[in-house]
Design brief:
The chain has a single domain, classed as Arc Repressor Mutant, subunit A. Helix content is 34%, strand content 19%. The protein contains 5 helices and 6 strands, in the order ααβααβββββα. The strands form 2 sheets. Strands 1-3-2 form a 3-stranded antiparallel beta sheet. Strands 5-4-6 form a 3-stranded mixed beta sheet, with no helix packed on it. The longest helix has 13 residues. It is globular.
């Protein structure tokens, strides 16, 4: 019986994306991908890493997330200036962002339709359109007015 190393699939994924499978990248990849599709900030992943006894700085977490994004392993979802989440679901889809909780959830791309898109300069094509719908709790909004 052939014994499979626990990180074999992650190692292959990182190598396939052109990334060297370092100890820290493997540990962060395991945290990212072991729970299915999810949205996570660098700060949240750093806390998870500390809880899992993975010795890694917040700067390394940021760098690794951006390397994974640049390699096509993650999507970065900017919800507001200076606040982004990393999405393990790299398929074409949109998001709802709950402002009170910071929760980000997926919206199937088929549920959002565009009547008009801008005319593009010659030689240009749309690579993708991303929508983040920001929502607030009406009860909370009325209390602040």
């Amino acid at each position: 019986m052939e014994k499979i190393r626990p990180y074999t699939e992650l190692i292959d994924t990182l190598k396939g994306a052109g990334l060297r499978p370092t100890r820290q990248r493997l540990a962060l990849a395991k945290l990212l991908y072991s729970r299915g599709d999810r949205h996570i900030s660098a700060e949240q992943l750093h806390v998870e890493a500390m809880d899992a006894k993975v010795s890694v700085s917040l700067a390394t977490v940021y760098n690794t997330l951006h390397q994974f994004h640049d390699a096509g392993l993650l999507r970065e979802v900017l919800v507001e200036a200076g606040r982004s989440y990393f999405d393990t679901n790299i398929s074409d889809h949109h998001h709802i962002f709950y402002e009170e909780t910071g929760e980000l959830i997926d919206i199937d791309k088929e549920t959002v339709q565009f009547k008009n898109l801008p005319k593009l300069p010659e030689g240009k094509a749309i690579s993708r359109v991303e929508v983040v719908v920001h929502v607030v709790d009406l009860d909370e909004k009325s209390k602040s007015v």
